[in-house]
Amino acid sequence: MGGKIDLNVGESIKKWTFNLSYYDYASCFFISLSFASMITTGIFAIPLISDLFSGKELDWNRDWTNVLFTTTSALGCIWGLMAHSQFDNTAKMIRNTWHSCRKLDPFIGEYDYETFNPETNHLEDGYAYHSLVDFWDRENEVPHWLDKGKYWKILLELRKVNKNVRLEVTKDVNLPFKRGKGNVVVILKKFNQVDSPGKKNESTDNKNAIFRIIIPQWLVINTEYKRFNIFSQTEINTVTSILSDVNKNIPKIIDEIIFKEEPFLKYSGNVLTSLSTYLNKSLPIRIVYSRIIEILPGVKERQIQYTNENLSSVSLDYLIDSILLKARTIGINEESLTKLHLLTQYLKKEYDKLGLGEGSSEYHNLHHSLEVAYMSLNMLPKEIHGYTITKRDYEIMLVAALLHDYDPVQGTSHYDLMYSRVPTVANTITEIKRKRIHDAYFILNSEELVRFFRKNASPPLVEAQEFATTHPEMLNDIETRIEGKIVEALIWRTDFPFNENAYNNFNQLLKEIDGQDFSVEKINLIAEILSLADLSVTYLSSDPLLAWNRVVKLYEELDFPLVGAVSRTDRFLSLFSEGSLFKDIISRKTFPDVFRQKWDNVYQFFHEGNPSNKINNLILDAKTKYEKINMDVLVSNCDYLINTALHNKNEYHIGIIRDKDEIIKAQTKLSELQIENLEILPGNPDNILPFIKDKSVDNFIITIFCDNSERRITKERMLKNLLHSYMSKLSQDGTIQIIVENEQDFRKIMSLIPEHDFKIIDTFGKVASGALNPDKSRHTKDAKNVKIITIQKQQNNNNNIQK
C-alpha cells in the first residue's frame, strides 16, 4: 500500500491553505461593506442635500464632518462593490474551470496514482517530481491525465519564489476541494530536525524549510485533443470550446495561486500576512484604473495594447477588429479595409466547417492565421534595410498571412483523426488558385467581392447565404495580377522546413515578378519577415504554459515524438534568436515591449527545462574553479567515479545516470560524502550529449566493467558515438578514457578504435576500489583490477607535436 498524503500538522510543520470559502467570506464582507457604506452615505448626505435645495450655502465649519463622512462612505461603497467583484469573479472562475474539466474528463480528481519517494523509500499517493531523472526525460513517467507543461509551469513559478519547493498532485477528496472549505492549494512547511518553528527568524527559517505544495488533479489536466473521442461536428465545437476555456483559465488560476501564496513562501505566514494579501487584491485603485480606462479617450490605443497583451486568447472577432485597426493606423485605405473584413468573414465560415474556428484548440486554426497577420504588421517596420515599405506592401502581406494556412481539404479523408490534420502549402496554393480568392481580392471592388463570396439560391426557396462559396467564373478571361503572384510567393516562403520544392516555386514566382513595378529584393525581405512571424508568433504572444500547449499540438500534428519537444524547441528558439533579421526586428523601439517580454519568458521556460543546459551551466562554472572537466557519459556504478573524484580534487567530474535505482544509490552516497567536485545528473546521454557546447569537456569517461550484456552493448554503442559523433565536444587536447576489466574486453575495445583517426596515448592498470565509507577509512566493496585506455584524436596530437 502507498503512503497517503497526510495534511495533518505536527510540531515541526506549519500549514496554510488557499480555499474558496475565504474568497466567499471576503466577497460577502465587501458587499456588506458596500451596502453599509451606501446607507451611511445617505445618512450623512441628506443634511447636505437638504441645505442645497433650501438655498443655504455650505458652511465648512459646521458641515465638514458630513462632507468627510459622505465622501469616505461613498468611496467605501465603490471599494466594496469592486472588491466583491474581484473575489466573486475569481471564485466563480475557479469553480467553473473545475466543472469544465469534469465535463472533459469525468474522472479527473478521482484518479489513483502512486509515486515512489526516494527519501522515505515508500510509495506515496499522488504524483510528485523527485528529480530521479530529468523532468522532460522519457524516463520521467507521468500519469496520462497529467499535463507536464502545466505541472512544470507551476513548479517553475513557485521555485522563483522559493527553491525548497516540492509540488504534489492529489485527489480532490484529499484536499478536500469539493466539500468543506474548498481547498485549491495546501502548503505544508516542514522545518529541519535541528530547527523549530519558534527558535529562528522566520525569513531565515524559510530558506531552510521544505515546502510541500499540494494541488488538485484538475489544475494540471491533460488537454491533448486526441484524449477525447469526437464523432460529430457538434461534439467537435463543444469540446474545442471547453478546451479553449480551460486552457485560458488555468494560467489565470496559477497566477492567482502565486499571488496568494508568495508571501507565505517568502516571509512568515500569519494573520497580518493573510490580511495584507486580501487587502492587496481588493485595492480599488488597481480596479478603478482598469475600469475607467475603458471609457477614457484613446480607446483605439488601448485596444491595440490589450490585443498585444492577450493576442493568444482574444476572440476571433476582437482580433479581426484589431488587425483592421492596426492596418488603418498604417495607412491602408477604407476600401481595402472593407475587403480585408470581407475576406476574414469568408475564412471564418470556411474554418468553422472544419472545426478550426472559434474555440479550436488545434495549432493550425484560424486564430493562428489571424495571429500571424497581426504579428506581421508589428514585425514589418516602415523602413528596413534601405527599403521603404508602402501601404500596398502591407496590404499584400496581410492577404498572404490570412491565406497562408488555408487548406479546406485537410483531414477530410480521415475524419476520425481530425486532431492530426496538417495544412500544406502546396494544397493552399492549389485551393486559392482554383477558387481565385487572392485574385478576386485585388481585381474586384468591395461590392463585387461580396457577390463573389455569396451563395445564391433560387427564390423563394431560401435566402442567399453570405460568405458561403466563391465564384471564380466572375474572373474568367482576367489574368492574375502581379499582387496575386506576390501573395503566392509569400505563401510559399512560409513553408517549414523551407524545402527544395518550396524554394523552387518561390524563386520561379520571383522571376515572373522581376522587371515589373515591385522590387524582388524587397519582396524577398517581406517574405522572410512573414515567415519569421509565422514561426515565432506562438512564442511572442503566449505565456509559457500556453506556448507549451501549442508546441504539444504542433508536435501531434507533425507526428513528432513529444519526448524531444522541450530540448528541440529550446534549440529552435536559440537558433531563432541568433538570426540577425529577427534580432534587428525585436530590438527596434517600434516593436511592442510586451512581445519581447513574452519571448524572454517562453525562452526561459524551455531553456530551463532542457537538461543539457544544466550541464552546460555546470561546466561553465566549473571551468573557473577546476583544472579539468571530466564526464562519465553513462554511469552504471558510481563507486569508480566517486573514488576518482576523491583522488583528483583539482578536477571536476560529471556523471550521467539513466537507471533510477542507481540514481537513488548515487544520491544517497553523495549526501554522506559531501564531494564538491562531483555532480551526478539524471538523464539519457543520447538526449543530452548533442546539445553540450563544443570544446567544453576535457575528458570523456566510459566504464565497461561490472555490467551485464545489455549494458555492455549499450556502452559499446555509446563509445562508437563518442568516437564518431561527439568529438567536437572535446577541448583541443581532449581525451577519451575507456576503463575495462579484463584482457578480452581490452582487445574488443581496441578493435573499435579507428587506427588512422585516434592515437592511444596511455594504457595502464589500476586497482578500482569501491566507494569510501564516510565513517571508516576502508572501502565498502572488493577491489577490482582494471585497465585504463586513454586515447586522443590524431589531429590534436599532431598539432601538439608541431607546437
Can you offer a commentary on this structure?
The chain has a 7-stranded mixed β-sheet, sandwiched between helices. Strands 1-6-7-5-4 form a 5-stranded mixed β-sheet. Strands 2-3 form a two-stranded antiparallel sheet. Helix 11 packs antiparallel against helix 12 and helix 16 runs antiparallel to helix 17. By secondary structure, the chain is α/β, with parallel strands linked by helices. Strand 13, helix 27 and strand 14 form a beta-alpha-beta unit. The protein is built from 29 helices and 16 strands. The termini are far apart.
Determine the N-to-C terminus distance.
Answer: 66 Å
General form = globular
Radius of gyration: 32 Å
Give the spatial strand order of the biggest sheet. 12-11-10-13-14-16-15
Model regions low in confidence, pLDDT < 50 over at least 5 residues: 194-200, 411-420, 771-781, 796-803
Instruction: Give the % helix.
Output: 40-55%
Main sheet makeup: 7 strands, mixed
Provide the residue-averaged pLDDT. 81
Strand content: 5-15%
What class, by secondary structure content? alpha/beta
What is the tally of beta strands?
16
| Tally of separate helices | 29
